[in-house]
Amino acid sequence: MKIEPFILEQCYAHGIDTYPKEACGLISGPIDQEELLLKVHRMSNVMDEYHALDPKQYPRTNRNGYIINPEEHLKLEDRLMQQGQKVKVIYHTHVDIDAFFSEIDKAYALWDGEPSYPDVHYLVCGINNRQPADAILAVFNPVTKDFDVVRVK
Q1: The CATH number of the domain where 52 resides is what?
Q2: Domain range for residue 53?
Q3: Do residues 23 and 65 touch, judged by C-beta distance below 8 A?
Q4: Tens digits of residue pLDDT in 96-148
């Protein structure tokens, strides 16, 4: 899957807007065209809310972690399905560090060793001092049961 510049630019813009907190969202495209990405959907990062309720279970904040608002996510999935679209990529930003697929990112992306969202890839965009930096795409490999990481920028 290729991340086109117009998609990447929107993800970076979201990260710059939320800096110094992590941004997160979803990227969709037509169900019948697997490689085509058409739209970036900004989602709310509710990590701070989870942290406030249970800092032991959720030690991270929006500064260094993300949880997509589950209600927003479900509503978008329903709307997309009605339009013949689906979520193909989950994206988030890293603030003032390089883009990489962390162990926490992997843990959130897997359920019992399998993808939580089959056929969905993960885009991580670095935002350093309110400027776009590097970006990677993590794709689940069913043979190795791990993520292959490809540099996007």
Answers
A1: 3.40.140.10
A2: 5-151
A3: no
A4: 999 999 999 999 999 999 999 999 999 999 999 999 999 999 999 999 999 99
Tell how strand 146-151 and strand 131-141 pair up.
antiparallel
Using one digit for the tens of pLDDT, what is the confidence trace for 144-153?
999 999 999 7
What distance in Å separates the CA atoms of residue 55 and residue 95, rounded to the nearest whole number?
20
Residue 26 CA, chain-centre distance (Å), reads 6
**β pairing state of 85-95 and 121-128:** parallel
Residues 6+ apart with CB under 8 A from 91: 11, 23, 24, 25, 26, 27, 40, 122, 123, 124, 125
User: Can you give the pLDDT at residue 47?
Assistant: 98
- The domain tally of the chain equals 1
- C-alpha–C-alpha distance, residues 87 and 151, integer Å: 21
